[in-house]
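Lay summary. Proteins are chains of building blocks that fold into shapes, and those shapes determine what they do. In this project we predict the shape from the chain. Here is one chain we studied, written as its sequence of building blocks.
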Amino acid sequence: MTASSAGLTYRPLRDADTPAVLDLLTASLAGGPTGTRSAEFFEWKHRQNPFGSSPGLVAEHADGRLAGVRLFLRWQWQSGGRAVPAVRPVDTATHPDFQGRGIFRDLTLRLLEEVSAEAELVFNTPNGNSLPGYLKMGWQELGRVPIAVRVARPAAFALGVRAALARRSGGGERPLVCALPTAAEWFAGPRTGLDELLRERAAADVTDTRLAVRRTADFLRWRYGDAPGLDYRVVTCHRGGELAGLAVGRPRRRGPLHEFTLADVIVRPGDRGSAARLLREAARAGCDHVAGHLAAGTEAAAAARRAGYLTVPRTGMVLAARSPSGPLAAARTPADWRFNLGDLEVF
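And here is the predicted shape, written in a compact code that computers can read:
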């Protein structure tokens, strides 16, 4: 089904559009989190997602050029054991020749209407430039997601912070080093004990009414093990020979600093000791610091201080949301969610 407006045709995204969409996203948003926008990454993100293929729309000019593109990444939260289907606005771009015509708004509102029958929640973490536009389209700013940081290499961290404040490179680019095994290798192995760990976690979480993603082996393998070019790493800890906890993160450059972005921490219910061990091991990955979101009430949050993690004030991503049909029925804050950074990380 297509619709026309101001000489443009709005239609569903097709598989054959992928090369042109990648060119448009590269021109507008550069290379993305991996540095290069590849068909492999696009396929993994938007077609292999265990929550379902991403709905998308394009604005096509009469000469065949794509004037704009908008995709929603499918996600699924749960609250007290009830599934809450959601979408996350991602990968949007307008060709420079067509900017100023309201294409971003048109694509977004049309796609919201298309997903209204199948999604209860629309959420994302817009930056300061895009947030005003989302607020005009009915999004609500829910608050800032707090980030906890653990300095791992004090001297290198101090030098990097000084260089960042002075807007200097930091004396030449250092090689990014991480001693942890890759998630691709770990999830390709036997993963002994993972299913049991996840079953115990899910059974305990069913009474939690906060919005959270149910971690399954298939989800974790897709999100971290199969992610092309994102270099996720795995930390594990064992108790009595059994898998007691799993953490996932990735080394990345933050200006002159090397950060280990902690995406996920999973331990058995009440096992703060294993959470502390995972947090300490993440700090030994080889980066200058570790950064992650440790949701209140979780074992990781309870273990954070004794593992050397402190919440940094006035930092973190802004969380915004709406329903497909309009504002949220009930006001929410980040405290109503129990997410890991991997749920909000831009990828």
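What the prediction tells us: The radius of gyration is 21 Å.
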